[in-house]
Structures are given as structure tokens and as C-alpha cells.
Design goal:
This protein is α+β, with helices and mostly antiparallel strands. It is built from 3 helices and 10 strands, in the order E-H-E-E-H-E-E-E-E-E-E-E-H. It has a 7-stranded antiparallel sheet, with no helix packed on it. A 3-stranded antiparallel sheet has the order 7-6-9, with no helix packed on it. The mean pLDDT is about 85.
């Protein structure tokens, strides 16, 4: 495991077994995607992964074998979605949330640093506190009180950059209170 670049960010490499990792993109290509158009980003596609049927159940089966996903309690998962970006698109910046953690899986089988997609984490003043290269079969776990965004990809890379984003409650959070405190 590479050295963690920030106290609130953890990096996990080679999270899926290779035989499982090689089947993920064909599985998620079978999902039904919605187009999201944000105020501060270009359009991108998302698909909910928490369905217990069809290709989603096959993906969750593979995810449940990976660290640190296998340490999550199912009832703590707020949402889990595949996000698909194409070159030149900027994903939206996440909102700061003191009650959540986020786990991002990098799902492309092949990726070079020159393709872009670097993950940047920002403090409350908007300064980058650390950045992490997008790398196949990598998972990045971070505290959601850091704002996060992937940099744009470029035409040298594959047509799509796939990420799997899971947002979950931090341990010992009163979920009912936290939902109203937003």
C-alpha cells in the first residue's frame, strides 16, 4: 500500500482480485445510466449500484470481497454509484460533509498518468491539500469534510473514465440527527 498523502485520505492498491477486476467494466457497461448536469460541471453519467438484481448485484458481490469495502456495514451505506466521465468533462466538486466518508474505486483496466483524472482534495479555503493519481484497481478512502474532485481526462486516454463512489456514515454518527443538520 502506498504512503497515505494526508491524515484524512487512505490509498488501497490492487483491491480486487485480477479475475474479478477484469470483469467489472463489462458488468457496468450493462447498467442503466442517467445523465447528470451540474451547475459547475459538464454532463456526466451515473448509475445506482445498490439494486439487488441484475448486473448491480454482480458488482456488489465482487465489491464485498475487497478491502476496505468489506468492512462497511450495509446499513451505513448512504449511496453507491458508478460515475462515467469522458475527455474534457469535469466531475462536480463534492460537498463537504462532516458525517460521511467516501470510498472511490478506479475501475479502468488500463490508465496512464498522462491521461489525466487525478483526484484532488481541497481544504475549506479551496486550496489543494493533496492529489492522487488515478490508477487501475485502486481505492481511495477519505473523510468527506475534504472536498474532492477528479481533474479532467484528455484525448490520449480511453473514451471513458469509470469510478465507483460509495458514500457511507462515519461510525457512531446519529444518522437521524445528521440528516436534519445538513
Amino acid at each position: 500500500m502506498p504512503k497515505n498523502p494526508h491524515p484524512k485520505v487512505e490509498i488501497y492498491d490492487d483491491v480486487f482480485e485480477l479475475k474479478d477486476f477484469n470483469t467489472i467494466v463489462p458488468i457496468i457497461n450493462c447498467f442503466d445510466y442517467d445523465m447528470n448536469i451540474g451547475k459547475e460541471s459538464n454532463p456526466y453519467f451515473t448509475a445506482n449500484c445498490l439494486k439487488n438484481s441484475g448486473p448491480q448485484s454482480s458488482l456488489l458481490e465482487r465489491l464485498n470481497k475487497t478491502l476496505p469495502f468489506n468492512q462497511l456495514k450495509k446499513e451505513d451505506i448512504e449511496h453507491c454509484e458508478v460515475q462515467l466521465y469522458t475527455f474534457g468533462s469535469f466531475p462536480p466538486m463534492t460537498n463537504k460533509n462532516q458525517y460521511h466518508k467516501v470510498l472511490v474505486h478506479c475501475l479502468n483496466r488500463e490508465w496512464e498518468e498522462t491521461f489525466g483524472g487525478q483526484m484532488c482534495f481541497y481544504d475549506e479555503t479551496g486550496n489543494i491539500v493533496c492529489s492522487i493519481a488515478y490508477k487501475p484497481n485502486r481505492a481511495v478512502l477519505f473523510d468527506a469534510d475534504l472536498v474532492y474532485r477528479c481533474n479532467t481526462t484528455n484525448v490520449k486516454g480511453p473514451k471513458f473514465m469509470y469510478t465507483l463512489n460509495t458514500t457511507f456514515w462515519k461510525p457512531r454518527v446519529n444518522k437521524k440527527f445528521a440528516r436534519y443538520a445538513k
